[in-house]
Design a protein that fits this description.
By secondary structure, this protein is mainly α. It is built from 8 helices and no strands. Helix content is 82%, strand content 0%. α5 crosses α6.
């Protein structure tokens, strides 16, 4: 073998060794990156699992707090009822009617579509019998429905004026009506125009002003 051949062979083997070393180093680096990515994925999964556990623990704590919150609400309601009874026991019927109107207006109690005589009596700290008597003495109302409907219609008038962007469905629900049809019928019966006409009349008055 000549010197040139030996040199070529040495160079070739050196090249092969260099390529092998490069491949090995690249493999090691790639393997490190893959391991690191795997660790990151595991950490993300662990974080998700931890967040899930914390979410469940927080939900359980909220559930445990609900009874205590409800107890506090009941205590406040009971105290309020006691104050109402103390304030109303010496009132005349006319004074009591005014007081009830004030309570209903301030609390928007009538906006509860499920409000009935029993619920109203409980919230006001009065007896159902007393409320019936007061309604019976007022020629405007034959029953509780008439009283609540009048309050809801008047409240809807306020809502229409204050919220021109609201739909009539939103107005009716906010005022306590169970359906838009009932709202439309009772509104026109008491105000003389439909809710939409009332809104338009109000907007025209605003423009003229």
């Amino acid at each position: 073998m000549t010197a040139n051949n030996i040199l070529i062979t040495v160079v070739f083997f050196s090249f092969l060794v260099a390529v092998a070393i490069s491949i090995y180093l690249t493999y090691r680096q790639t393997n490190k990156v893959l391991k690191k990515n795997t660790q990151l994925v595991d950490e993300v999964e662990n974080q998700k699992e931890l967040q899930h556990q914390l979410h469940n623990e927080l939900r359980e704590l909220k559930e445990q707090l609900k009874p205590q919150d409800r107890i506090s609400e009941l205590q406040q309601e009971t105290e309020s009822l006691r104050e109402n009874i103390k304030d109303t026991k010496d009132m005349t019927d006319d004074e009591l009617k005014g007081w009830i109107d004030l309570q209903m207006t301030e609390s928007h109690m009538y906006a509860d579509p499920d409000l009935n005589l029993k619920g109203m009596a409980q919230r006001l700290g009065l007896t159902q019998k007393k409320i019936k008597q007061l309604l019976k003495d007022d020629d405007r109302y034959n029953r509780l429905y008439d009283y609540l409907t009048e309050k809801r219609v008047l409240y809807s008038c306020e809502l229409i004026k204050e919220n021109p962007q609201w739909s009539m469905d939103a107005i009716s629900k906010e005022a306590g009506f169970v359906s838009r049809t009932t709202f439309q019928t009772e509104f026109k019966k008491r105000i003389g125009v439909t809710p939409a006409q009332y809104r338009q009349n109000h907007l025209n008055d605003v423009v003229r002003a």
